[in-house]
Structure formats: C-alpha cells, structure tokens
Amino acid sequence: MFIDLIDTYDWKNTTELIYSKTDSEVQAALQAKSRNLDDFMALISPAAEPYIEEMARQSQQRTLRRFGKTIQLYVPLYLSNFCENNCVYCGFNTQNRIKRKVLSYEEIKDEVIAIRKLGFEHILLVTGESDVKAGAAYLKKAFEIIKPHVSLISIEVQPLQAEEYADLIEQGLNTVYLYQETYNRERYPVYHLGGKKRDYENRLKTYENLGKAQVHKIGLGILAGLEDWRTDSFFTALHLNYLKRTYWRTKYSVSFPRLRPHSGSFQPNSIMTDRQLAQLIFAYRLFDENVEIALSTRESAHYRDHMLKLGVTSMSAESKTNPGGYAHPELNDELEQFAVNDSRTALEVANMIRSNGYEAVWKDWDYILQ
Questions:
Q1: Mind listing the pLDDT tens digit of every residue in the chain (370 residues)?
Q2: How far apart are alpha carbons 320 and 328 in whole angstroms?
C-alpha cells in the first residue's frame, strides 16, 4: 500500500534534496528520453527556473503528440455544501456560519437542464463531505437523474467504500477526484481539525479502494498554499507513480488548485506564483506524457489563455461553486465554496480555445467508445 511507501520518506530530507538540485541535474533531466522521480525532483527545483522556456517547449511537444490540439471542457455541479469536516482552508468548514443547502432531486434535474443548455456533457458532481446529507444512496439517485442527460459523470465527494464506488460505476461513474490536500503527515492535523478527513491514513487508503474498484480515472493533487508546493508536488508524483504501477488499468489526472477567497480567515502558508505553477505543469508533462492535467476557474482568464497550448488537457468553464447556482444564478454567494477567478461563459471559453486553433471537446469520446 502507498502508506507503507510514503512512510519510508522523510519530509525534511526530501525538501532538502529538492532545493539542493544543481544546474547539471536539471540539464540531465531535460535531455533524458524517459524521466524518473529524481528527474521530476530536479525539474520542480529552484535550479530549473532558468530553464522554464525549454520546459515549456518540450511540454507543448509532448502534449501535442499525446492529446493533439484538444481541450476537454467540464463543469462542476455542486449538490450540497453540508460538510462534517473542520478544514481550516475551506469555505464549507462545518464551523463556518454559512447558509447550507442540499439539492432536492427535482433541483438536481433543474441544474442538469440548465447545464446542458450551456453545452456541457461532462459533469463533475461536488459535495461537502457529509455521509448524512449526501451519502452513497443520495449520489446513486443523483446519477439516475443526471445520466440520461449527459455523456460523462465524475465525482468529487467524501471517500466511499470500494463496493459503493463499484455500485456507482454501474450507474455510469467515470472519474473520481480525491485530493490529499497535503502529504505532510506531521502538519496534516494542523489543517484538518475534525471530521473523518482528519484521518490521514484513511484518506490515503481510499485511493486503494478506487484502484480495486477499477474506476476508469482517478484524479489526485494537492492544495497549493498549505505546505511547500515543491515538496508536496514530489509526493503527489510519488503517489501517481505508485498508483500507475499498482492499478495499471486506470487512467490518471492531476491538478493543483491554489487557494482562493472563501468563508473563513485562513491565509496561505506558502505562495505559489504563476511562473511556479507553470513550472510544475511542465514538470508533470515531462515526467508523464499520458497524465491528464486540469486547470480550473480558480485561475485567471489571462493565465488560462496563455497556458492553453503548453501542457493542460482540460478546463472547467462558467463554474458555479454553490448548490443551485446554474438554474438560479441569483442565489446568495454565501453558499459558495470559493470565489471563481475566470468568470467567462462557457461559450466565451470555447471560442477562446477555437481562436487558438484548438478544439473544445464537450465530452470524452474515449469513454463513449468503450
């Protein structure tokens, strides 16, 4: 299990290794035909910063070779903002005094109809982590309502049991996004003060459940702003490498959301600049040509436009982070998990993609053909 592997690493020593990488090690990584974890460590190190243009060039070439000139579009559908966790960085924190809502089945249908009018056929279902308000039975019913209207359904919800994932797969589940947030075991409890998410080991073991259930695709990543992004990103790559070798039938994606304004007073402990985020995206593409890379509306329109051709494969658009926000855009912003940065419409994002000579893909054809 991955928990056994990661326990053989020391956070402080790993950080020192990353920051001690040299110019020659970066050059060797750039020239390598295939790259290992040590190469990835060099590519995310400060020593690689002078080579970011070369990294961008290679990243673009590898992405074109594997994915062509396509960007998959998806949209999050927030079913509920009830949460049983006390995570200091999240607007849905159970301790935050915000308005709470769980969509009724009729409201879910209204949301799907509104989303389909925007053109989307790939929907990401999102909830706060609450087994009581939005557990497996609720999700299964939501799938029954949504499936006739779309081509692909993904989820970003609380960890489920292997048999619950298997049940949802039969209902049409394609992808599960689950974020460890930070792999720093010692500091993990500082950010997760209560609820099931406080259990570091249990969250890591959920990825094993996903692999055993043979989910079509697993999305993983960290929340940039909690711990040193370079060290956390190395452990994400370590996790990705383990999952690929252990559950090789499954596809994988990575994303690295940066903290956005939300209800609560938490401020980032670590700042990732735009240039550093670009460096990380390029490093992932050079490390793994097949991994899918998402860039959400947390990032600005300007930044997403410029990153379009350089390594990413999917983008969200016209995102609402509050339950009911598509059918009823007048709803109070107090229901939001966080404020989006790129507020363009789906059509505007699709037109931007096309104007750059790329195709905006509204559904995953690879999955449909299966």
A1: 999 999 999 999 999 999 999 999 999 999 999 999 999 999 999 999 999 999 999 999 999 999 999 999 999 999 999 999 999 998 889 998 888 999 999 999 999 999 999 999 999 999 999 999 999 999 999 999 999 999 999 999 999 998 999 999 999 999 999 999 999 999 999 999 999 999 999 999 999 999 999 999 999 999 998 999 999 999 999 999 999 999 999 999 999 888 765 555 677 788 899 999 999 999 999 999 999 999 999 899 999 999 999 999 999 999 988 899 899 887 656 556 667 889 999 999 999 999 999 999 987 655 544 4
A2: 10
> What's the chain's Rg over C-alpha atoms?
20
- With contact defined as beta carbons under 8 Å apart, do 326 and 77 qualify? yes
Q: Is 253 helix (H, G, I), strand (E, B) or coil?
A: strand
For residue 300, give the nearest of 349, 254, 255, 333 by alpha carbon.
349
* Token pair in block for residue 218: 């697993």
Among 63, 6, 48, CA closest to 234? 6
d(CA 31, CA 25): 10
* Closest listed residue to residue 123, CA positions, set 310, 346, 298: 346
- Beta-bridge mates of residue 219: 177, 253
CA dist 168 and 140 (Å) reads 6
Asked whether 79 and 142 are in contact (CB, 8 A), the reply is yes
**Domains of the chain in sequence order:** 2-9+68-369 (3.20.20.70)
What lies within 8 Å, CB to CB, of 89 at 6+ separation is 181, 191, 223, 225, 226, 259, 262, 264, 266
Residues 325-329: contacts with CB under 8 Å, at least 24 apart:
325/78, 326/77, 326/111, 326/114, 326/115, 326/118, 327/107, 327/110, 327/111, 327/113, 327/114
74 pairs with which residues across the strands? 316
Sole residue written with tokens 């999240």:
90
